[in-house]
Design goal:
Elements lengths: L17 E2 L11 E2 L18
Antiparallel strand pairs: 1-2
């Protein structure tokens, strides 16, 4: 964000992945995988460290 002065804010959408029956895209159907940490809380994704 420091390199982009036109961006004035950001936020975390979800801390953890979670079940979502209607989702069909991504690696696992039925899982919203946009969290910073996997559903089982074992793997921190790259964005977690930003």
């Amino acid at each position: 964000m420091a390199e982009r002065p036109f961006v004035w804010g950001s936020f975390v959408w979800n801390m953890f992945d979670f079940g979502a029956a209607h989702r069909t895209e991504g690696d696992r159907p039925g899982v919203n995988d946009k969290g910073l940490v996997t559903r089982d809380r074992k793997i921190r994704k790259d964005a977690f460290y930003l």
